[in-house]
Amino acid sequence: MGVKRRIPSGFTLIELLVVITVMSILAGTMVPLATATQKAEKLSRAQRELDAIGEAMEAYYYDNASFPASLNDPSFFGIYILPGVGDEKLEDEWGGNGFYKLSQTTNPDVLIVYSVGTDGVDNGANSESLKITIPGSIPGLTKTRERLRVIAAALAEYLSGGGTLTGNWTTDLAAMGLGTAYQKDGFGTDFTLNASSRILTSAGPDRTFGTSDDVVF
């Protein structure tokens, strides 16, 4: 008659200790990995939101020759950009439910939209690394050149038909059959038209005539 061998029904104390030790090591490894992954996801999401805001700001500037005073400006928020991008909110990822910050300089207009970053402290646009810079010169010059081409075509037709220039831009613009929409350039400054040389000029991004950024047509 053979002897029956008893099959262990569970872990030994040593085996349990080994399992617990391994699980503790894995847990200690996974926590920082999860934290790093969450941080990377927030950084990526914030950059996508800033890029979307930048595109909306360019569109706004093209239409208004200026930037909005704030992200929740009623002329901007909900019109040029919706409360969410890809179902994500436009609140700063680290801003305590606040909007991304704006910093603007004028003449020429430059807007910086930035996040307070992982430390949650607003250190100013120049010190924060997570930001996007939107120069108003890009949409402004695009619109300026579009208007100059239309004005130049209307001017050529007006002069070929025997029209004469007075030197008064408002008067000459009306005589060419163009509306007041063509009175200003893409930066909100009136064009000038020299009656003798027939040269059209925009003051450019700095809104000052006689400087290097003037646009002459």
Quick recap:
This protein has 217 residues and is of the alpha+beta class. It is built from three helices and eight strands; from the N terminus they run H-E-E-E-E-E-H-H-E-E-E. Helix 1 runs parallel beside helix 2 (137-160).
Layout of strands and helices, then pairs:
Layout: H1 13-64, E1 84-85, E2 88-89, E3 101-105, E4 110-114, E5 131-135, H2 137-160, H3 169-175, E6 192-193, E7 200-202, E8 215-216
Helix pairs in contact: 1-2
Description:
This protein starts with 12 loop residues before the first helix and ends with a strand. It is rod-shaped, with a radius of gyration of 31 Å. It has 2 domains: 13-135, Glycoprotein, Type 4 Pilin; 140-216. The mean pLDDT is 87. It has helices at 13-64, 137-160, 169-175, and strands at 84-85, 88-89, 101-105, 110-114, 131-135, 192-193, 200-202, 215-216. It is α+β, with helices and mostly antiparallel strands. Helices cover 38% and strands 12% of the residues. It contains 3 helices and 8 strands, in the order H-E-E-E-E-E-H-H-E-E-E.
